[in-house]
Amino acid sequence: MSEGVTDAPRTKPRGKRKVALFVQLLLALALLLGIWFSFQGTVLNRQSENAVPERLGALELVTWTEGPEALASINKLHGS
Q1: Per-residue pLDDT tens listing for the chain (80 residues)
Q2: Residue 25 φ then ψ, to 5°
Q3: Of 43, 60, 42, 44, whose CA–CA distance to 52 is shortest?
Q4: DSSP helix/strand/coil, 40
Q5: Max CA pair span of the chain
């Protein structure tokens, strides 16, 4: 065996590893931002809209309750 030659596996140069790590972090951040904006656009903004339609087929909305009054009504209905 000649001196100076090793059987150690070759590793990527440090610069390429840093670039690969940076790209992975950038992709993970982009994925998280995409999930956040999707969640914000579909779930969080629905609270500001009227979630109950004025009409549902032939039925018309007669009363509207919200907050503690609505919770009391639900508890009364379910016997809690």
Answers
A1: 556 666 667 766 778 889 999 999 999 999 999 999 888 877 776 655 566 778 888 999 888 888 999 999 999 998 86
A2: -65, -40
A3: 60
A4: helix
A5: 93
Quick check: is 70 in a domain? no
Q: Which residues pair with 56 in a beta bridge?
A: 59
pTM above 0.90, yes or no: no
Q: Assess if residue 33 is contained within a domain.
A: yes
Cα-Cα-Cα-Cα torsion 61, 67, 73, 75, nearest 10 degrees, comes to 140
Total of domains in the chain: 1
Residue 24 in any domain: the answer is yes
Instruction: Identify whether 76 is part of a domain.
Output: no
